[in-house]
Design a protein that fits this description.
2 domains, two-stranded antiparallel ribbon, mainly alpha, 8 helices
């Protein structure tokens, strides 16, 4: 038997719960003047770029390039359009997952993301330590989207360059959008 009530006009509210399991106070509908329904506007779990394509179900935990390539092939973008949309999507990712801190704190966080170890004591030391690390920036974006993806490190510039040939170059203007990320840029 479900908990419920009848009002004077014959309507009822069925709570769908057996009466003996819960102690409910049930009001007849005639005693209820208004019903307030609140809608919670939770923060989106993905950047606004992906929301422009309502038929595309993005997975915010997936690798960035995988999601982008799925969308690009679905939209049948030309090479030129792909390049433009890639920069747009990356800018959105960087803004969405970016860290709002600044100065030494932000440089130290980047060092931790990259896996440097202990926090360098100055901005100069952070930059110096990061120069010795070879990281494909797409790997950093993937890590920010989903921390379960580790930031991939390469032992040499040559290995990094080979990986960049596989993924494509990271648009320079996007790396510079996050001033700190640009500390990992390398000339090809």
């Amino acid at each position: 038997m479900s908990a419920g009530t009848d009002d004077s006009m014959g309507g009822s509210i069925d709570l769908g719960v057996p009466e003996e399991e819960h102690d409910w106070t049930i009001l007849p509908m005639s005693k209820i003047d208004t019903v307030t329904v609140q809608r919670f506007n939770a923060a989106p779990k993905t950047n606004a770029f992906w929301l422009q394509f309502p038929g595309f179900a993005t997975n915010p935990a997936a690798r960035f390039l995988h999601e982008f390539e799925s969308l690009a092939s679905r939209m049948a973008w030309s090479k030129k359009e792909r390049h433009k949309k890639l920069a747009e999507a990356l800018a959105g990712e960087i803004d969405f997952h970016g860290d709002k801190s600044s100065g030494l704190v932000r440089w130290q966080r980047l060092c931790r993301e990259v896996g440097v170890g202990s926090d360098p004591e100055s901005i100069t030391k952070c930059k110096k330590v990061l120069e010795a690390h070879f990281v494909n920036l797409y790997s950093l974006v993937d890590h920010r989207r989903n921390p379960e993806f580790p930031v991939v490190h390469f032992t040499s510039f040559k290995e990094l360059r080979q990986d960049i040939h596989r993924t494509g170059t990271f648009p320079r203007q996007c790396a510079k959008r996050d001033r700190y990320m640009s500390g990992l840029l390398r000339r090809m």
